[in-house]
Amino acid sequence: MRARVVLAAALLGAAHSSAAQPAAPATPKNAIPEKSLAAEIRAAPAANPPPSPADAEDAPADDTPIPIPPVPPRIANSDQYDRCMDMLADDPSGAEALATSWRGGGEAASHCHALAQIELGNPAAGAALLITLATTSQSPPGARAEMFGQAAQAWTMAGDAPRALDAATQAITLAPEDPDLRVTHAIAALALHQDQAADEDLSDALDADPKRTDALVLRATARRHLGHLADAEADIDKALALDSENPDALLERGIIRERRGDLAGARTDWEKVEDLSPDTPTGDLAQQNLALLDAGPRQ
Fold first, then answer.
1. In angstroms, rounded to a whole number, what is the distance separating the alpha carbons of residues 20 and 26?
2. Confidence grade of residue 298 (pLDDT, cut at 50, 70, 90)
3. Helix, strand or coil, per DSSP, at residue 64
4. Which of 105, 210, 228, 233 is the most exposed place for a label (fewest CB within 10 A)?
5. Helix/strand/coil for 167
6. Hey, what's the torsion of the CAs at 107, 112, 115, 120, to 10 degrees?
7. Radius of gyration for the chain, computed over Cα atoms and rounded to the nearest angstrom
8. What is the mean pLDDT of the chain?
C-alpha cells in the first residue's frame, strides 16, 4: 500500500524564502508527511541589511515535530505489524516499544521501529534504520524503493541533503517509473541546487500525471532558479488553474512577481498565503517575505 508523501513546502520554503541562505507536499505519495519539507530546509531569520525576497534559496532544518505518513507502505502482513503501524501517529513511543520488544518481528518490526524514530523527532536515526532495512530487505524492489524514498525524506528532515539525494537515487534506481519517487528525488536535488536534475525529475512526474500541483510548483521553483522565469510562471499558472488557493503556488508566484518588479502583486500573493496558511511553514515564509518588502531594498 502506498504512503502519501509531502510536497515540500520545505524545499519550497527554502527556495521561496526571502530571508535565508542555502540549505521547496499537494502531496506526493511515498513517505513522511504533513510537515512541509520546506520547513525542513527552510529559511533562517532575516539579517541586516535585509536581502531581496527572491534572493534566498535554502536553509537549515527547524525543530517542528515530524509526522508519519497516514498510510505508510506495508512490507508485511500480520496483525502485530498492522497494530504497530497504526500506533505511529498517536502513540509513537508505544509503537517503538512494541517494535523493539517484538521477538521474531524481523523486517516488519524494523520498519515500524524506523518510522517510530522519525515520528519521535529522530529523523537521522530513522533514516539510517530505513537505509539498512532497504539495503538488506528481501522485499520486492518496489517496496525497497519506497523505503529508500522514506529514508530520503527523513534525511531531508534531518538537514542532510547529500544523504537524502543518495537515498532518493537508490529509490529511483529500483523504481525508475515511479512519479512519487521522482518528486522525492527532485526535492533532494533542489536542496543541493541541482536545479536541472530536479526539472528533469519533475517533468517525468508530470508526464505521468500532468495535474500534480506539487510537481508543477516544484518545477516552477527549479526553473526560476535556472533563470527561466517565463517557464516558471507557466507552471505556476497551471498549478493555480488546478487549485486557485494553493499556498505553495501563491508563495512561488509572489517570488516570480517580485523578480519581475511587480511588488504590489507579490504582496497580494503573500498576504493571501498568510490568510490561507497561518502558523505553517509556508505562511511563515510569506510573512518573512512581506517583512523584507516592508524593509525596502538594500542601500
1. 24
2. low
3. coil
4. 210
5. helix
6. -140
7. 19
8. 80
